[in-house]
Amino acid sequence: MLPLDPRTVERVAKLVCDIGGPFERAGWKIERLLRHAGWTEPPEYDGSPRVRWLIEEIQERRENQADIERLLCRLCDPLEYDEGVEAATVVQIELNRILEPERLIVSTAVGRPVLADLDALQLMPVFSAPSDLDQRLPHLIADEAMVAILLERIAEVHACELGKAYLLAVVGIGSFIEGLLFSVLTERDATLLRDGFPGQKGKTPAHRASLALLLSAAHKKGWIQIDAKEFMEKVREFRNYVHPRQQLESKFRPDEYTLGMCWGPVRAILNDLEVALVGGAG
């Protein structure tokens, strides 16, 4: 569980630096990693011993769960390595060995590394809603009223989950992503409110933009990755089952695993947006 224990932080820092190892990072490469992880106001390396410097930087942000989560995920991202998936997998295995006592694991959801809880009995990743949305959403959305609505929507999803109303919980997740993307897009691109969202059939007025159109717009701007976009389109399809007839015809019966499957891409989309719009990626 976050925040990480100091000894875990030390082990993570040593893995990042990998001094003498095949993935050793010079100071400027560590600085670049933090920037690519979307850290808010990423620090500049000061020339001091690398491991000690990184431990101090991580400890300073120990309460910033979003930055720590994105660092752990970026460390396992094939995009970070010239060797791609092969190198990322080696690092991911070692990182998960370090994280196991914390009951955490970096797994893969829709092709993206995502932090999950570790099931104590089955040693499997368990995806859940980010616990710090009240701190993360204001960095993405300026409209305080919309932030409040989105937090209420997540609270309603949790209530549905506790009551085992999994279909309504999935619908709520899709609604949350729709509101998140609409606000992020229109606040940063005023032309969308004025001219509408471009699509295959021309432009759609902003107030009628569908989740599919919002996902497409965010992906075209490079704010979310293709895999997360495509999976969230599946969640959009799940929302159609709010109509009992369609659920009956398809025999769709969501359960807690369906819901967990949906939280993975939500976390991936949130991380992607933060890296693109909040942190110092470049």
What does this molecule look like?
The model has no long low-confidence stretch (mean pLDDT 89). Helix 11 (226-239) packs across helix 13. The protein is mainly alpha-helical and 282 residues long. It has a three-stranded antiparallel β-sheet. It has a two-stranded antiparallel ribbon with strand order 4-5. The two termini are 29 Å apart. The chain is built from 13 helices and five strands. The chain has two domains: 6-126, no CATH class; 133-277.
Q: How do the helices and strands line up, and which of them pair or pack?
A:
Layout: H1 6-17, H2 27-36, H3 50-60, H4 65-75, H5 85-99, E1 104-109, E2 112-118, E3 125-126, H6 133-140, H7 144-162, H8 166-188, H9 190-195, E4 197-199, E5 202-204, H10 211-220, H11 226-239, H12 244-250, H13 256-277
Antiparallel strand pairs: 1-2, 2-3, 4-5
